[in-house]
Amino acid sequence: MSKYILTFEKSGYIRYTSHLDMVRLFQRAIRRSGIILAYSQGFNPHPKMSFALPLSLGYTGKKELLEIETREEYSLHDLKNRLNEVLPGGIQIVDAEIFSAGKTAASSVHSAEYLIEVPLSASMAEKAASQRDSFWRQDSIFAKKTQKKSGKTIEIDIRKLIKKFDIAIVDNKIIMKTIIAQGSRETLSPELLLSAFFHFVDIPFDRSETEITRCEIFYRESEKGSETL
């Protein structure tokens, strides 16, 4: 048995493919590539393949992570090339590495870096950017969140979940670059951060024109989650 982490890009129209369909897509691609996955034991065996952190519908992903366990050992070059030959446009394996950690990648994820582009008028963009420091210096940043089970809307403090936050203006767009908590222990969605910031600066924005890219997932304590932007 061998374990690997595959880093892949998800872009273009395929970013509107749901997580469940992505699971099926990769299962089919792996079968077509001839790579033999290992299976779990028990009455309902399933292939040992899992995404470190599902990507929200419509988001672009630059360095998404897929963990697989195979029955045979493969070279990293072979894994990458075999899969890229059968994957559809918009999905590309950009890296492969042996994964020897005792935990799964999914349980080791602690944060992720996002790039968020919001079209605004020149004056609104300047206003938003000018209030970045005031927003960031707050001891508490409150956002409204709807609970999935109860459907109730509650107010939560997301300040400790924002690791890094920066803003630039490019061609009448606000470009946010942020590292936020993500994973099984604690998590913050980019949508909630967006809502909190634009509520703070008192500027309306069009979510349908907002582009969100997940640039990287951090799944080891030694990785770049603590670096400055």
Task: Tell me what the structure shows.
It is a single chain. Helices cover 24% and strands 33% of the residues. A hairpin with a 6-residue loop joins strand 6 and strand 7 (153-157). The protein has helices at 19-33, 76-86, 105-108, 122-130, 132-136, 190-201, and strands at 2-10, 49-51, 60-70, 91-98, 111-119, 142-146, 153-157, 162-170, 173-181, 211-218. The strands form two sheets. Strands 1, 2, 3, 4, 5, 8, 9 and 10 form an eight-stranded mixed beta sheet that branches. The radius of gyration is 20 Å and the shape is elongated. With 229 residues, the chain is of the alpha+beta class. The protein folds into two domains: 2-108, Pseudouridine synthase I, catalytic domain, N-terminal subdomain (Alpha-Beta Plaits); 111-223, Alpha-Beta Plaits, CATH 3.30.70.
- Work out the helix count: 6
What is the end-to-end distance?
38 Å
Rounded mean pLDDT score: 91
Number of beta-strand segments: 10
SSE run: EHEEHEHEHHEEEEHE
Unreliable residue stretches: 221-229
What best-fitting shape do the alpha-carbon axes yield? elongated
Percent of residues in helices comes to: 10-25%
From the coordinates shown, what is the CATH architecture of the largest domain? 2-Layer Sandwich
What share of the residues does DSSP label as strand, in percent?
25-35%
**Cα gyration radius (Å):** 20 Å
The biggest sheet amounts to: 8 strands, mixed
Tally of structural domains: 2
CATH topology of the largest domain: Alpha-Beta Plaits
Question: Structural class, judged by helices and strands?
Answer: alpha+beta
Q: CATH first level of the largest domain: which class? A: Alpha Beta
